[in-house]
Specification:
globular; binds 2-oxoglutaric acid; single chain
Length: 284
């Protein structure tokens, strides 16, 4: 059973259904200024690390709201780690949180975060693809190497990006992300991380770079970049929040049946612009 310090189920419900404090909502709308060097780094390597995307004095409430959503989603799951599938052992995965909880909507729909995605990809407008909290349990397993976009029915994978925000200290020991720099330019290769992962051939010629994060730091990685994590070899939860973005105007690709059931594109036909109730425009 999962537990977080100073968090009861009642408190979690209350937090998730309240507005964030004014100073935090204002902060989430405030632009984060990227240097040309950071944008260039993202373009060349397929990922970038950014410091203090969430500033220290805003993080504790944001972290508690995200913990609350994980608590409510997972409280009825009484299984121990060893009773879970190998995929489930790699993280507690809680998605589409912004549609269930008003406070999560304020975080996930943040213009500050979406603006970073827009500037890194050098596009005009950004839509939400989906959100997921990814909490690696104490002694939780590794996340197999993969490219995110191979699970998404999006015809323009080069214009997708994920932000992975550290809510606590994220290190090599507890399962920080590693990336294969420049592998966004490699061939695409589907890895079945859910049931039968393999080490992708396409990533083999690239070297691995671990990216530890302090609380409030974040990475952004392209949907084409190969990445993974090691296991959580500590007795504390590794807490990460992800938000996935796509370029406004991206289109639905129904050619791979494994991906078409994705909730974000329900009702679309092959080739149509992705513009659904779950993919709002997040930038002005
Ligand atoms: O958090 C993890 O362990 C893996 C995250 C990941 O693969 C992703 O955000 O794309």
């Amino acid at each position: 059973m999962i537990k977080f310090e100073n968090l009861t189920k009642d408190k979690a419900k209350k937090l998730l259904h309240s507005h964030l404090p004014e100073s935090v909502s204002e902060f989430l709308e405030k632009p984060y200024t990227l240097s040309e060097k950071q944008i260039q780094y993202y373009q060349e390597n397929g990922f970038v690390k950014l410091e203090s995307v969430i500033e220290e004095d805003k993080l504790s409430i944001i972290r508690q709201v995200i913990q609350s959503s994980v608590l409510l989603r997972k409280e009825s799951d009484k299984r121990t780690l060893s009773e879970k599938s190998k995929y489930e052992q790699s993280f507690l995965q809680c998605g589409y949180l912004c549609w269930d909880f008003p406070a999560m909507k304020q975080i996930v729909h943040s213009k500050r975060l979406a603006g970073i995605a827009r500037d890194l990809m050098r596009v005009d407008g950004i839509r939400l693809w989906h959100d997921q909290a990814l909490f690696k349990e104490p002694n939780g397993g590794a996340t197999s190497v993969h490219q995110d976009s191979s699970y998404w029915p999006i015809a323009e994978p080069q214009f997708t990006t994920t932000t992975w925000i550290a809510l606590n200290n994220v290190t090599k020991e507890n399962g920080c992300l590693y990336f294969y720099p420049k592998s966004h330019l490699a061939k695409r290769e589907y890895v079945d991380i859910f049931k039968n992962p393999h080490q992708p051939e396409a990533a083999k010629k690239y070297h691995k770079e671990y990216v530890p994060l302090n609380p409030g730091d974040a990475t952004f990685h392209s949907g084409l970049t190969f990445h993974g994590t090691d296991a959580n070899n500590t007795n504390k939860m590794r807490e990460g929040m992800t938000i996935i973005y796509l370029k406004d105007g991206s289109t639905f690709d129904a050619s791979d049946e494994r991906n078409t059931a994705h909730k974000s594109c329900s009702g679309l036909k092959h080739g149509e612009i992705i513009k659904t109730e779950f993919t709002p425009l997040l930038t002005d």
